[in-house]
Amino acid sequence: MTAKPPCLQHRPTGRAAPLRLDETDPPNLARVSSPATPPTYDCADPDARVAGLVAAAGAVRSGRLVVLPTDTLYGLGADAFSGAAVRSLLAAKGRGPDMPVPVLVGSWNTIDGLVTNVPAAARELVEAFWPGGLSLVLPHAPSLTWDLGITRGTVMLRMPLHPVALELLREIGPMAVSSANVSGSAPATTVAEATEQLGGSVAVYLDGGPCRVGVASTIVDLTGDEPRVLREGAVPVAEVAEVLGREVATA
Fold first, then answer.
1. Do 80 and 96 contact (CB within 8 A), yes or no?
2. How far is residue 180's CA from residue 206's CA, in Å, rounded to a whole number?
3. SS (H, E, C) the chain
4. Dihedrals φ, ψ of 125, to 5°?
């Protein structure tokens, strides 16, 4: 991978410090509105952030769901390699496997272990827009034992531009993450909106404040001979075309 271009030098790099997974969460760090409501951790508070990341990592490793902030929208996340956890995620959203769950990653090089090959166009787009609001659809590596839904041999990958999300991803590894909303309802841009829709189906809520972008990611399909934009969102199609140096078809 080439060096990070100047336009990305302000973005978070490096590996997050290891989480203290052997500690007990201090009880005063989580906001609990009622006994039936899962804990919400205010990640603006350093101690609550550490406790929340510990709790979220433990929840994901035990097959439960978490809500995490990203730059685009709040995400509903699960262990990408647990079919049962992914099925729980789809059930919480009220949708079927015909709409497979995307995968979030915590670094550029993670993509190499998840796909069959990384074409030049993917490298160019990763260097220009990751971390950020661009998702890439690529053929997934056949050796991977995951069940994200009816993927037809592909996977949608993104590296989010949010420090809380990146810390969790660098601790856990790739996560299956969909927008934190019930299917057919508006995606959540705050933790309160996510809680209202998903309630007790989630084990841990991480509050990273309102989403900076507030719209879904742009999706570029790289499984064919030419790149194709399946959805225009956070990254304009014109910027994708500029990076690739050619016109890009849209769905």
1. no
2. 12
3. CCCCCHHHCCCCCCCCCCCCCCCCCCHHHEECCCCCCCCEEECCCHHHHHHHHHHHHHHHHCCCCEEECCCCCCEEEEECCCHHHHHHHHHHHCCCCCCCCCEECCCHHHHHHCECCCCHHHHHHHHHHCCCCEEEEEEECCCCCCCCCCCCCEEEEECCCCHHHHHHHHHHCCEEEEECCCCCCCCCCCHHHHHHHHHHHCCEEEECCCCCCCCCCEEEECCCCCCEEEECCCCCHHHHHHHHCCCCEEC
4. -70, -35
Give the pLDDT of residue 150: 79
Q: Can you tell me the mean pLDDT for 18-28?
A: 38
**Tokens read off for 18:** 């290891």
What structural domains does the chain harbor? Answer: 35-217 (3.90.870.10)
What is the pairing mode between strands 30-31 and 66-68?
unpaired
Q: Residue 110 has which token pair? A: 């993670």
CA 232, CA 217: separation in Å to the nearest integer? 7
Cis peptide before 227 (omega within 30 of 0): no
- Give yes or no for a contact between 32 and 39, defined as CB atoms under 8 angstroms apart: yes
Confidence tier at 164 by pLDDT (50, 70, 90) = very high
What's the whole-number average pLDDT of the chain?
87
